[in-house]
Write a structure and sequence with these properties.
Layout lengths: L2 H6 L1 H6 L4 H13 L1 H18 L8 H12 L10 H39 L3 E6 L10 E2 L4 E3 L4 E5 L3 E5 L4 E6 L2 E6 L1 E6 L7 E4 L2 E5 L3 E5 L5 E6 L1 E6 L2 E6 L2 E4 L5 E2 L6 H7 L2 E7 L4 E3 L4 E9 L5 E5 L7 E6 L5 E5 L5 E5 L1 E2 L4 E4 L5 E7 L9 E9 L10 E3 L4 E6 L1
Parallel strand pairs: 7-9, 17-28, 18-29
Antiparallel strand pairs: 1-2, 1-4, 3-6, 4-5, 5-8, 6-7, 8-11, 9-10, 10-13, 11-12, 12-15, 13-14, 15-16, 17-19, 19-26, 20-25, 21-22, 21-27, 23-26, 24-25, 27-29
Helix pairs in contact: 3-4, 5-6
């Protein structure tokens, strides 16, 4: 099924009025066509607005005026053949005209009301804002309105995702699925239902295909993609950018430069979580203890740890033995092997929302795990933070393990 036929069938597809074969054909086309996916999402949004309309009873004068208008309409008998008049009669034709007029009136009223509701329904709401400006969390914006961020601001767009604005940035909401960046920086985190969302700036349109990406306004806008992909259309031509690519309009795609994300790091101070997995419930006296350790972040801004060679020495195992005694144990490079790690240009390990660091650890202590019973353990990081990549690292949740003979 091609695009035109699919779009014709979208309303019937939503209402369940297609045959099983037709439904399967529409579903198959939607899976592989981002443009029709966006059309389907737009239709869903419009019909959802219709569902919110209250039931109202028209004034009797509406129907009276409509009937009078039909009666006073000049007759053009040349447009109606004799067989049609014979089938319906003159009274029947009057009601046909009345019904047609009523249908047109209903459609016009519905369209006008939906357009009114669409303009009055908020398209974005502030979920987070740093102190220093007049914006507050919970403030909403409607289509046609603009927001200027005096400080770092995060907005939630229903069924689309979140938009992060750098201080001094101005964003206009053209609709729920299209915005215009007038000045500054915006970083978008788009959920799957937000495919087709557009950011426009200075003659350039960036269309989302499910991704995390940023746009910097200017005479030659810059687009940078952390995850997923976007389509960039401008007077200079079209360009596709994929994960960890960036480009200035008119230039070629190149590797993502962390400098583009510095403004997010400075405002969010990202926090890394240390998570443990593959933990045994029991172990033999003396060890070894094996587990998997990951560093994870919810921020697109990078945090830089040590190099893979130096990182193990920064990991500390916090141990409480069965008698309640607490002691610490450092790991070394022989205890740790990398499963997944993305190095920065200077060799340090890089962590962001799309790049976790995963390490397999095998710990054998010269003195430890000798007592039988239940131990409580956690792991922490004692590395240094760098001015270019601020962030904090939270220790892992504690876990217990029983040492047996």
């Amino acid at each position: 099924m091609h695009c035109e036929e699919t779009r014709i069938n979208l309303a019937a597809h939503r209402s369940g009025d297609l045959t099983a074969d037709e439904t399967a054909a529409v579903d198959s086309h939607l899976k592989s066509c981002p443009a029709c996916q966006a059309e389907a999402a737009s239709l869903q949004s419009t019909l959802s607005l219709l569902d919110t309309l209250p039931e109202t009873t028209p004034s009797p004068r509406v129907w009276e005026n409509l009937s009078n208008a039909v009666d006073n309409e000049p007759r053009k008998t040349t447009l109606v053949s004799a067989p049609v008049i014979g089938a319906f009669g003159s009274s029947g034709l009057r009601w046909l005209r009345l019904a047609a007029a009523a249908s047109i009136l209903a459609a016009a009223v519905s369209f006008g009301y939906v357009a009114y509701v669409a303009k009055s329904v908020p398209v974005a709401t502030i979920s987070q804002v740093l102190p220093g400006g007049d914006l507050t969390p919970g403030r909403s914006f409607r289509a046609g309105e603009s927001v200027t961020a005096a400080t770092y601001t995060v907005l939630t767009v229903p069924e689309v995702g979140t938009l992060k604005l750098d201080k001094g940035s101005t964003l206009r909401f053209d609709s729920r699925r299209r915005v215009t960046l007038e000045t500054g920086n915006v970083f978008a985190e788009i959920i799957p239902s937000g495919k087709g969302f557009e950011i426009r700036t200075n003659g350039t349109t960036v269309t989302v295909h499910g991704t995390r990406f940023g746009v910097k306004a200017g005479a030659t806008p810059t687009i940078y993609v952390l995850e997923g992909n976007v389509a960039v259309d401008s007077k200079a031509g079209a360009l596709q950018l994929t994960a960890r690519q960036m480009a200035t309009v008119g230039g070629p795609a190149k590797s993502l430069d962390d400098e583009s994300l510095r403004w997010i790091a400075q405002n969010e101070n990202p926090t890394l979580a240390m998570r443990l997995s593959n933990l045994p419930a029991t172990m033999s006296r003396g060890g070894p203890l094996t587990f998997r350790l990951s560093f994870e972040s919810a921020s697109p801004a990078p945090v830089l740890l040590e190099t893979l060679r130096d990182l193990p020495a920064r990991l500390v195992l916090n141990i409480t033995d069965p008698a309640g005694k607490k002691y610490l144990a450092n790991l070394d490079g022989r205890d740790v092997s990398a499963v997944q790690a993305r190095p920065a240009p200077d060799g340090r390990v890089r962590v962001d929302v799309s790049s976790a660091v995963i390490l397999d650890c095998r710990v054998t202590l010269k003195e430890g795990f000798e007592q039988l019973g239940r131990y409580t353990l956690s792991i922490s990081y004692e590395g240094s933070r760098t001015p270019t990549a601020p962030g904090t690292v939270q220790p892992s949740d504690p876990f217990t393990i029983e040492v047996r003979p």
